[in-house]
Amino acid sequence: MHDFDPEGLVQEQLRDRHLQNARAPLTLPESSAFVGTWLTSLFDPHCRVVVIDANVLKSDIADAVRRPGTSTTLFTTMNMRALRVYCAEHVVREIHEHYERFADQSRVSRERFFQQWTRYLRLLRVIPDGAIPPSLLSPAELGRVETLAREDVDDVPSVVLSLVLGAAFLSKDLLAREAVYGCQSDIEEARDWLTLLRAGGDSSELYKMLAELIIGPTIAGAGLVVALRAVAKRAPWLAVGLTGLATYGALRVPREAYRAIGGTAMNALQIVAAVAKPYYQAAERFAQAAPAEPTWAELREANRRGSVLHRAALHVLARAPLGVLSAAELVQALPELGVGQSLTPVRKVLRENRAFVRIHGKWQVGQAWAYTGRR
To answer: Which CATH number fits domain 304-365: 1.20.1280, 2.20.70, 1.20.58, 1.10.10?
Structure first.
């Protein structure tokens, strides 16, 4: 008889899920909307946000070409909605206009590179260049961005986007990472972007496993209670009979059966613990890759009130569990900023800034880049 190994079972299940996800077809509809469902938000409500630069993106596309039939970690986490990956428009334009050169440099087929690229375009959340002004940054953040601009102005939109969203920054460029993170230890932590992606994917799948272990039985138990109450209300005599039958059945169950039930329950609790521990570890690893953010009070001291509201709206909406919010819902979701944040100024921010996109009467941050089919 084999020893019960809950940690081994969880890791095996996690590997199987990642393998299945890597082979999954493209899941999003062909539109610019990134709208989730209540079911997906129930089983994974934590929105993990990252910003990607051109070097990491084109490298990942080349890797995807080299491994047909199995998606890369980046593509899989986007496709399964474990991560929300944002990028500045210039990143998309750079790859779209120079894909032939990038394919040649990577020594892969131009045609297959372009085919893979069109798949990534369906999942990337693109922010128009210039849509997020530097006025949303704190003085310290702005100083680092201005230093970067003197060396490499091309990376500035991606860096500003990462800072304003408070998102992990996937980049191979040391100067760009310095502008986002400032602290040397944080820069080194963010360097290993593949480990970061794996942490995001692990935390997503492990949370789903926890939800399946806990939410499913909870819903079933609640349903049983509701059913029994309905029976008791409509047919009290039937409820008394069912209760007596259940009591009689319980008395007839052998002790060995109770021991088996107890052993099964203990095993279930061990599995929950075996899922919870690596989930929190993976979630912590991912959270540590986000840049340090100024407080709303600090931003209020240094920036215009409208800029504080603009940044807060971006930060909250980028993490909305369903991907979209109405203006009224956004008002409710905003933290206390100490500035005017009623429905009127929130609507004004949403309507006047191009980073916000209206979808079916609600709002999201960014949208899929309009692919025209032309090269």
So the answer is: 1.10.10
